[in-house]
From TrEMBL:
<feature type="signal peptide">
    <location>
        <begin position="1"/>
        <end position="21"/>
    </location>
</feature>
<feature type="domain" description="Leucine-binding protein">
    <location>
        <begin position="62"/>
        <end position="400"/>
    </location>
</feature>
<keyword id="KW-0732">Signal</keyword>
<dbReference type="InterPro" id="IPR051010">
    <property type="entry name" value="BCAA_transport"/>
</dbReference>
<feature type="compositionally biased region" description="Low complexity">
    <location>
        <begin position="30"/>
        <end position="42"/>
    </location>
</feature>
<dbReference type="Pfam" id="PF13458">
    <property type="entry name" value="Peripla_BP_6"/>
</dbReference>
<protein>
    <submittedName>
        <fullName>Branched-chain amino acid transport system substrate-binding protein</fullName>
    </submittedName>
</protein>
<dbReference type="InterPro" id="IPR028081">
    <property type="entry name" value="Leu-bd"/>
</dbReference>
<feature type="region of interest" description="Disordered">
    <location>
        <begin position="28"/>
        <end position="56"/>
    </location>
</feature>
<comment type="similarity">
    <text>Belongs to the leucine-binding protein family.</text>
</comment>
<dbReference type="InterPro" id="IPR028082">
    <property type="entry name" value="Peripla_BP_I"/>
</dbReference>
């Protein structure tokens, strides 16, 4: 009966997301090719092909971890960062053995193409054919929301990284979901603290899909709680390249601040600069994003806002290892925002498996993970018992020119503690 139920759920999910794709809720390129392996699948062995002594000695049944993320599509850069970070986290958390309690870790990677329908198909393959014990992903909130019900249907743990929509650990949550990535409300609390006060007039610019809509709602709630007034909200399409109309409406409204929520390569920063938003007396504030986006933010030097991660900000041994190892493996390149998230998700998985002595039963893992603390490049994270959202440090920063960097550098004002940025419980 359970197998029949699963089949019906998969069919219904596939039909639902075909309809969603037709409606254009998240307008991404569905013509993308699969990952480098040709079928959107890749298996990771012993990092870069080097066999570790501990792996050779591990003789138990493998523990299978599926990574479901964007290797193609609009968020592919985030997916590639996450995979690199996961690999380094696996090495760190297992002391190079890539095994837990004598059981080797096998990693299977699948490409969602940043398309919710493809995400469902690939997740089903990982559960049905590969029989993964734990699923990790995805880069897109749309992909992740599409896959969440499958974790409950197949009764397997899913660690969400880095998708941020509040609904993932809110209205769409189920007991098998744990999130190492921060959510929109955590961003919003940090962003509102930077600019909102009694009577402040603020406009919001965010993409028109789950990430942007949830982020805007969470920011509005946090800002209004501090006495601010939201005077305009603009939601361009996810793949928009022309922001002229949106920005003109913001200029016409004349807010004191414009709070921008954005992810992806098609950022609005150049358009905001070209249309002279700040010269018109509107102060832009945002979360300082990944390094690629920082290169486009020269016009925002001096801005005070927040960031989730920049490799220069944390001061701990895990981050030191990540920076050193990443530069060694990737031609001197520093780790980025989603690399740190990938490492955190690997360390959470290994900490849980260590606590269960390698037992992959989902109910056993769930009990071990509720309230579990684990180390990450950002310091200690804790899975909140009520909704399994990881409470974590965020950083209040100012963007500054720096002679050693060819992009505006996020410089620490202060750490925002996990308690300070704890989001509302919405599940």
């Amino acid at each position: 009966m359970k197998s029949i139920f699963r089949s019906w759920v998969v069919v219904l999910l596939s039909v639902l997301f075909m309809l969603l794709a037709a409606c254009g809720d998240e307008d991404v390129n569905t013509e993308s090719t699969s990952g480098e392996s040709g079928n959107g699948s890749e298996q990771m062995g012993d990092g870069d092909g080097d066999e570790k002594d501990g792996v050779a000695e591990a003789t138990g049944d493998p523990i299978k971890i599926g990574i479901l993320t964007s290797q193609t599509g609009i968020l592919e850069a985030y997916g590639h960062q996450m995979i690199k970070g996961f690999e380094i986290g696996l090495e760190y958390a297992t002391n190079g053995t890539r095994a837990v309690n004598g059981r080797p870790i096998e990693i299977i990677i699948r490409d969602t193409q940043t398309d919710p329908q493809v995400a469902v198909q690939q997740a089903t393959e990982l559960y049905e054919n590969e029989e993964v014990d734990i699923l990790v992903g995805a880069a897109s909130s749309g992909d992740t929301l599409a896959v969440l019900p499958l974790a409950e249907v197949y009764e397997r743990i899913m660690i969400v990284e880095p998708a941020v929509a509040d609904s993932i650990t809110g209205s769409e949550w189920n007991p098998y979901i744990f999130r190492t990535g921060r959510n929109s409300s955590q961003d919003a609390v940090a962003g509102a603290a930077a600019i909102a006060s009694e009577g402040t007039e603020i406009a919001i610019l965010a993409p028109n899909y789950a990430y942007g809509l949830d982020g805007a709602e969470a920011f509005r709630e946090a800002a209004e709680a501090l006495g601010a007034k939201i005077v305009l909200e603009e939601f361009p399409a996810t793949d928009a390249t022309d922001f002229t109309a949106n920005i003109q409406r913001i200029i016409d409204t004349k807010p004191e601040y414009l709070f921008v929520i954005w992810a992806g390569a098609n950022s609005p920063w150049q358009a905001l600069e070209e249309m002279g938003v700040q010269e018109r007396g509107i102060t832009i504030s945002t979360g300082a994003p990944d390094i690629a986006a920082l290169y486009t933010m020269d016009a925002l030097v001096g801005m005070e806002g927040f960031t989730v991660y920049h490799y220069t900000l944390p001061n701990n041994s895990v981050n030191d290892f990540l920076v050193e190892e990443h530069k060694k493996r990737h031609n001197g390149e520093a780790p980025d925002l989603f690399t740190a998230g990938g490492m955190a998700s690997a360390m959470a998985a290994i900490e849980a498996l260590t606590k269960t002595n390698g037992d992959t039963n989902a109910d056993v893992l769930r009990e071990a993970m509720k309230g579990m603390s684990f180390e990450t490049p950002k310091g200690t994270m804790i899975f909140r018992e009520e909704d399994h959202q990881a409470l974590q440090v965020l950083y209040a920063i100012e963007l500054q020119d720096h002679p050693d960097y060819d992009y505006p550098l996020p410089v620490l004002i202060r750490e925002l503690s996990p308690e300070e940025t704890a989001p509302p419980i919405r599940n």
